[in-house]
Specification:
The chain has about 290 residues and is an alpha/beta fold. The protein has one domain (about 30-285): Purple Acid Phosphatase, chain A, domain 2 (4-Layer Sandwich). About 25% of the residues lie in helices and about 20% in strands. It has seven helices and eleven strands. The chain has a six-stranded mixed β-sheet. Helix 2 (about 50-55) links the parallel strand 1 (about 30-35) and strand 2. Helix 3 packs parallel to helix 4 and helix 5 packs parallel to helix 6 (about 205-215). The protein is globular, with a radius of gyration of 22 Å. The termini are far apart.
Length: about 290
């Protein structure tokens, strides 16, 4: 075989390889990745920063960033802290959603200026409807969803049609108290891990769940996603008899095994999967998004 034949053969093999690779790439289902983190504050009222381990995460590698609240000890007391948080999370991005916590709401006017959104709102992304609620509406210890906010929930649940999922984002686990499938998680002591002692009658079981049942009847899956955990646990997952998925994730600067919640969304099948990921393993694994 002469040199010309060898070159032609090599080019043919290269062409075939490229075609095979191109076909495999084009047939692979499009998948997007979403991250949920919460309770990222450190126990420091002077240095308003998030846990340095979480600060190392490349949030730009995720298609959505879902924030469950309590980002800093006083997230909005000074505008400089909001500027710092914005540099990490791009707070005004349509793909960054923030369910405000009781450590975030010192200056709600500044929060709304930086995020360019009200304290509660609804938005849509990749066929998913998100209801981002504010659980500190009246007093820090009440967590009531009422008034205009409850009307927003009613409007969304009455009109939703095309979405594959409805994700209800909150800071407080407002759904945990008195839920028949969560008795083992319900505490009454101050500083109980779920902050259950701060949650009183809030209309979740009596008003909101019946609305969500109407959504489910249309074939739309419902996920309740919260962020006020982390003091003692970093993950929470219950598939309840009401067929709602109840999820929460949170961090603690004093604990090693902190986790975040990683969603994978197949845009072709509309399947939404998730798993809790240890932050130290994620960072040591070059922040791979593969499962």
């Amino acid at each position: 075989m002469n040199l010309g034949d060898i070159i032609l053969k090599g080019l043919f093999v290269l062409l075939v390889t490229c075609l095979v690779w191109s076909c495999e790439k084009s047939t692979a289902p499009p998948v997007e990745n979403y991250i949920h983190i919460a309770h990222t504050r450190i126990l420091d009222t002077i240095n308003q920063v998030i846990d340095p381990r979480l600060e190392r995460i490349d949030f730009g590698a995720f298609d959505m960033t879902l924030l469950g609240g309590d980002l800093c000890e006083e997230s909005s007391k000074n505008i400089s802290t909001l500027v710092y948080l914005d540099s990490i999370f791009e707070l005004s991005s349509p793909s960054t959603l923030w369910a405000l916590g009781n450590h975030d709401n010192a200056n709600l006017d500044d929060v709304e200026k930086v995020t360019k959104r009200p304290r509660y709102y609804t938005t849509h992304y990749n066929g998913i409807t998100f209801l981002v609620l504010y659980t500190q509406e009246k007093e820090d210890w009440i967590c009531t969803i009422s008034g205009e906010q409850l009307e927003m929930v009613r409007h969304v649940t009455d009109t939703i049609k095309e979405s594959s999922h409805l994700v209800v984002m909150t800071h407080k686990l407002i759904w945990i108290k008195d839920h028949p499938n969560m008795k083992e998680h319900q505490g009454i002591k101050a500083y109980d891990w779920s902050c259950n002692y701060m949650i009183h009658e809030n209309g979740w079981n009596t008003e909101i769940v019946p609305m969500l049942h109407n959504v489910q009847k249309r074939g739309i899956k419902v996920i309740a996603l919260a962020g006020d955990i982390g003091n003692n646990v970093s993950e929470f997952e219950v598939h309840a008899d009401d067929d709602i998925e109840y999820l929460a994730s949170g961090s603690n600067p004093l604990k090693k095994d902190i986790k975040f919640l990683h969603f994978k969304h197949n845009l072709t099948t509309e399947e939404l999967e998730w798993r809790f990921v240890r932050v130290d393993e994620f960072l040591s694994g070059n922040q791979s998004l593969e499962w």
